[in-house]
Amino acid sequence: MSIDNRQMWQELGIDLERHDVLLSALLPIYQEIYLSQQNRPEGMGFFDFVVGDIHGIRVRELRQHAIDGGKVVATYCVFVPEEIVLAADAIQVGLCAGTQFSVTIAEKVLPRNTCALIKSSFGFKLGRICPYVQTSHLVVGETTCDGKKKMFEILSEHQPVYVMEVPNKKTESSRQLWLDEVRAFKEVIEKLTGNEITADKLSQATKKVNDRRRALKRLYELRKANPVPISGKDALLVTQVSFYDDVDRATQQINALCDEIEARVSQGIGVFPGNAPKILVSGSPMAIPNWKLHHILETAGAAVVCEETCTGTRLFSELVPETDGNLDEQIKAIADRYMRINCACFTPNEKRLDDIVRLAKEYQVDGVVHYNLQFCHTYANEAVLVERTLDEAGIPLLRIETDYADEDTGQLRTRVDAFLEMIRG
Ligand code: BJ8
To answer: Distance (Å, rounded) from C-alpha 227 to C-alpha 264?
Structure first.
């Protein structure tokens, strides 16, 4: 661990003792889950490096940006329009919320029967173990689910928080409400940064974010190949890292990885045996370092080829139309794009059901695993409809409800083994 990093963390108010425990636990887990995989694309080396230095170089960049007078905006949800933040020369960083370590800290304040993602994100701040949240000038929350919106009230006692109102329906009046929210967010960001968002700046930022979406789309397209050229774990890591790395660098690294994978595909190189059952994972997002389900599935012999989640297709499938139009036209296009995200917080949310079936067919999967964080009521209830829809489409489904702890790993393995055995017939 570099002395420079320790000094930086200290200056950021990090609880060094706790933070040491967190990092020393993370690296062996990474070794076991990631570095033990065979025949990985070389391009994953960049993402290994990023995780290996998870609270180092990137935090230093953000800090330098802040020292130079720039602002850092932290988020927990794919509904926060990154284009607006970038257009004001600020940096948006998606916060990690995927470790049991911070869950136990949060449980000193939040009710235990809250979803692990909410507890983990709150615990990072309460325990002062996340240099990203410590570096940020503003946390932007949203009114997606009840647990989150109440957590943001408590979080605001520790950190400046602004909450965007995400409607729960996709009617015309809801769309108008959301458009007003995006306009108000633009003003909040302009005030925070002191920078005006012009039409020109916004169109450049839109192209930048779209380029990263296009790169991720390209990666997912390649996952359709047979044999499967990259593990689900690796692909998941790529999307997770894209939440907090520099946008242009992430785009470039993902594209470089895709170039290599394209060559693999043309040579018929894969990372799983040709008969490995292909799985689509659908449901709650998986924030870094939540690799639990993918690891269980892939060590049981399955190949995860797609995620219908916010750390998967919901992150990048929809682009914002790129126009040089006037500022308000561009804001409308942005608002419209974000309203197409099929979060289970919406009612009804039929498009998500259609998407799951469409993706299952496009990726030619043998089964779907519906992943539900325990105490997430929106995804749990929507799973009833997912089950019915997949049943009608004749696609096998396994419903998993879990958290970040290890206690149920054995039980999950047994259920996954039985599911894969059923699929293999
Ligand atoms: S757009 S999925 S990122 S809200 S798992 S905290 S819903 S209780 S994370 Fe999400 Fe935005 Fe929707 Fe996507 Fe609540 Fe459920 Fe927890 Fe969740």
So the answer is: 10
Cα dihedral 129, 291, 243, 138 sign:
negative
pLDDT beyond 90 at 1: no
Question: Ligand 1 pocket: which of 77, 114, 286, 311 to mutate (most atoms <8 Å of CB)?
Answer: 77
Which value, in Å, is the radius of gyration of the alpha carbons in the chain?
21
**Tokens representing 169?**
């329906």
Q: How far apart are CA 114 and CA 108, in angstroms?
A: 12
Ligand 1 nearest atom to the CA of residue 146, by list position: 14
For residue 88, give Cα distances in angstroms to 51, 188, 199: 28, 11, 11
Contact in structure between 293 and 401 (CB atoms under 8 Å) = no
Q: What tokens does 152 get? A: 């943001």
Q: In what order do the strands lie in the sheet with 72-75?
A: 91-94, 72-75, 138-142, 161-164
Nearest-angstrom CA–CA distance, 346 and 145: 10
Strands 278-283 and 138-142: unpaired
pTM, full prediction: 0.97
The whole-angstrom separation of Cα 356 and Cα 87 is 33
For the stretch 115-147, pLDDT in tens is: 999 999 999 999 999 999 999 999 999 999 999
